[in-house]
Amino acid sequence: MKTQKTILLVINPIAGGTDKKPIIKRFKTFVTENDYTAVVYETTGEDDQKAIDELVDRINPERIFISGGDGTIREVADVLKEKEVKIALLPSGSANGLAENLDLPEKLDEQLKIGLADHFMDLDTLDVNGHTCLHIADIGVNAQLIKNYEQSEIRGKFGYLLQAFPTLVNSKFPFRVALKVNGETLEKEGILVAIANANKFGTGANINPEGKMNDGKFEVLVFKNFSITEILKTFYGSKNLDPDFVEVICCTEVEIQTDEAIALQVDGEYLGEETRVKAQMNPNKINIAVPSGFKL
Ligand SMILES: Nc1ncnc2c1ncn2[C@@H]1O[C@H](COP(=O)(O)OP(=O)(O)OP(=O)(O)O)[C@@H](O)[C@H]1O
């Protein structure tokens, strides 16, 4: 008798504040129709990484589908660092920055087809102060906004964050920053320093047009104190990057030092205030499903 291969779905039931039952049901039907065994793991928010690690070792899935926001993808990616498992995304978070960068379609059936097909990319991953980063980390106004957003307990689209400007205007921005990069130490002043593996933010704004997610390099972007409003429009609106207020440095590692502790976020998750941020390429890449015509 032929042994069926397994596909594991890791799904975050609270991501994006939507009901996940239809995704689970459709996943099971689709995968079974394609002669795979379907296994579903629903995250609990407690010790999920350990549970996923053990489950993956036990069932040895041929690939893993992940449904949630960027936080869920990051947690699974961390577990898979030392394992060679292909992953595919069924985005369902309030912020789906990675999916946005991979040009994934919105329809679930199309996402499932991509997940079962054979078009993959070796996605670079970064280490930012010990945290895995798949697309964009930053210190400054954006991380501060994410902190405010997380504390507000409102879930949903990020657009309304723009209403939070007044809370930022009187804060510690701009700040002075020293960057150790490419053998030099550069002294700068800005309101936001981004570490970008990808091009786009979750909303589609292209903040890093030169970035390629599989070139073994990343970009450091220093946003000058041009205008908080303009910069946040670039981050959260549909505008492309304005070279007048940003400086871009391509590298494989960087050390960022500030005088005052500044808010840090990685892939949409606020991680506290830091005076030192070290980012470098991870040796491990992630084999991720992309649409057949996908070009970087
Ligand atoms: N069952 C659960 N109950 C509560 N929290 C959970 C559960 N499962 C996962 N989590 C938490 O969800 C977070 C990840 O959410 P994710 O980023 O994937 O979705 P999201 O809707 O985009 O989130 P956010 O609204 O924070 O951007 C992690 O902090 C994780 O611990």
UniProtKB/TrEMBL annotation:
Keyword Chloroplast in record: no
GO terms, molecular function: ATP binding; kinase activity; metal ion binding
A Pfam family assignment: YegS_C
Gene Ontology CC: one annotated term: plasma membrane
Superkingdom as given in the UniProt entry: Bacteria
Cofactor(s) required for function per UniProt: Mg(2+)
Domain DAGKc positions: 2-132
Example GO BP: phospholipid biosynthetic process
Gene3D superfamilies noted in UniProt: 2.60.200.40, Probable inorganic polyphosphate/atp-NAD kinase, domain 1
Statement: the UniProt record of this protein carries the keyword Lipoprotein: no
Keywords from the UniProt entry: ATP-binding, Kinase, Lipid biosynthesis, Lipid metabolism, Magnesium, Metal-binding, Nucleotide-binding, Phospholipid biosynthesis, Phospholipid metabolism, Transferase
InterPro entries: ATP-NAD_kinase_N, Diacylglycerol/lipid_kinase, Diacylglycerol_kinase_cat_dom, Lipid_Phosphate_FormReg, NAD/diacylglycerol_kinase_sf, YegS/DAGK_C
NCBIfam families in UniProt: YegS/Rv2252/BmrU family lipid kinase
Name listed for the protein in its UniProt record: Diacylglycerol kinase
